[in-house]
Design brief:
alpha/beta, 13 strands, Alpha-Beta Plaits, four-stranded antiparallel β-sheet, 11 helices, Aminopeptidase, globular
Length: 405
């Protein structure tokens, strides 16, 4: 990150004072959500069964509609989207009516992306990074993150989880790596920050590659939300890429940013703010990879479902080629629906985004958004998640290029 940045991007010290403890719940604010057309009737039914007024449509388009809700209603909507459509979250939340209405108009593709060529010619770096990653490290991160009672975006334990991850990522950085920063991205409307790890590019520093997953967890029916698969697994998968990159002195040509997003479960709120910041500041993001749920092997024959909707077709082809060439595991196409994870926040602003999923969407982990989303439901190992660590390592090494030792 550059020095001249807003308060939300300030680089914080590792002293206890930086935690900015927030104990009080925020007021039940008015928010605006966009929801896929197929989910409108189920949402109204769910709200009616809860004794709530039926939300009126503010604006409807062919693919999605805008509704005005209260912030307290978002967790019920998130639960509905999981139970009925197996989406996480499945809707997008906005602070203003104007933002929500504008989002229904498709964003033009970001022009600089046309300059990216999807080549596979950096095998030495790919194999160096892939050869360094370990299942035990991925498993350890999943265990630590899922040990928090909840990582809900308004909870103190959600803040604590972000601070823990910040410290863990900082511990990987050698003192000699002045090209690396680890930061909290503060969000004005809720307590939990997002966490960003940046490696500045050597020759193309103004072109940015993003790898992300969401930090928060949710359980609408109870206070315990371990979120081991959703999405401690995704964060753990790329955390091991960070460790390997630092251990092997990886120097990318393009800038690489690893992001653990806050508040995904309630409408992609953290990733939307971050993607909007990049768009408003003219930051040239040339590719985005999302890891959301990587450790539940829902099929005996398929390891990866490449999501084809609300993603970038050319980058998806690049992703499939990476998997075939380097990871050598079975894959298939799958669809996820409107706003089903943080990749949609980037896609909606015109960026090239892709998401490799742990299975086909219909065969994904049935225990998410409950107290049963534990590591034990994935056989107590991170064997499946390690495959996605390797996918992310290959994606970074071939899109950001660069060398490792």
């Amino acid at each position: 990150m550059k020095r001249l940045i807003p308060v939300s991007l300030m680089l914080l010290s590792t002293t206890p004072a930086f935690a900015e403890q927030r104990k009080s719940e925020p007021p039940d604010r008015e928010v605006w959500v966009t929801l896929g057309t197929d989910a409108v009737a189920p949402m109204r039914e769910s709200f009616k069964s809860a004794g709530w007024d039926e939300p009126a449509t503010v604006l409807a388009k062919e693919h999605a509609s805008v509704f005005r809700l209260r912030e307290s209603q978002l967790s019920r909507l998130a639960t509905l989207m999981h139970e009925r459509f197996n989406r996480c979250a499945g809707f997008i939340t906005y602070d203003t009516r104007e933002e929500a209405l504008a989002s229904l108009e498709p964003a033009p593709a970001v022009a600089p992306q046309s300059l990216v060529t999807y080549t596979l010619d950096n095998a030495t770096t790919v194999n160096t990074l892939m050869g360094t990653v370990l299942e035990s490290n991925v498993r350890s991160t999943i265990t630590s993150l899922s040990s928090y009672t909840t990582r809900y975006y308004t909870s103190q334990s959600g803040v604590d989880a972000a601070n823990w991850l910040l410290s863990k990522w900082k511990s990987y950085v050698p003192a000699t790596r002045t090209d690396v920063t680890v930061e909290l991205f503060r969000h004005a409307s809720w307590a939990q920050p997002s966490v960003i790890f940046t490696i500045r590019g050597t020759t193309l520093p103004n072109e940015v590659v993003v790898v992300g997953g969401h930090l928060d967890s949710i359980n609408q029916s109870g206070s315990t939300a371990p979120g081991a698969d959703d999405d401690a697994s995704g964060v753990a998968s790329f955390t091991e890429v960070i460790r390997a990159a630092m251990a092997r002195n990886y120097r990318p040509q393009r800038t690489v940013k690893f992001m653990a997003y806050a508040a995904e479960e309630v409408g992609l709120r953290g990733s939307k703010e971050i993607a909007t910041y990049h768009k408003n500041n003219g930051i040239n993001v040339v590719g985005v990879l999302q890891l959301d749920m990587t450790n539940y092997k829902g099929s005996s024959t398929i390891d990866v479902g490449v999501v084809t909707d609300y993603t970038h077709a050319a980058q998806n082809t690049f992703l499939r080629n990476l998997i075939t060439t380097y990871v050598k595991i079975p894959q298939t196409n799958t669809s996820c629906g409107y706003g089903c994870s943080d990749h949609a926040a980037w896609h909606n602003l015109g960026y090239a985004a892709s998401i490799p999923f742990e299975a086909t969407v219909s065969a994904g982990n049935p225990y998410i958004h409950t107290s049963s989303d534990t590591l034990a439901r994935s056989s107590g190992t991170a064997t499946h998640a390690l495959k996605f660590t390797k996918i992310a390592a290959a994606y970074v090494a071939e899109l950001a290029k660069g060398t490792a030792q």
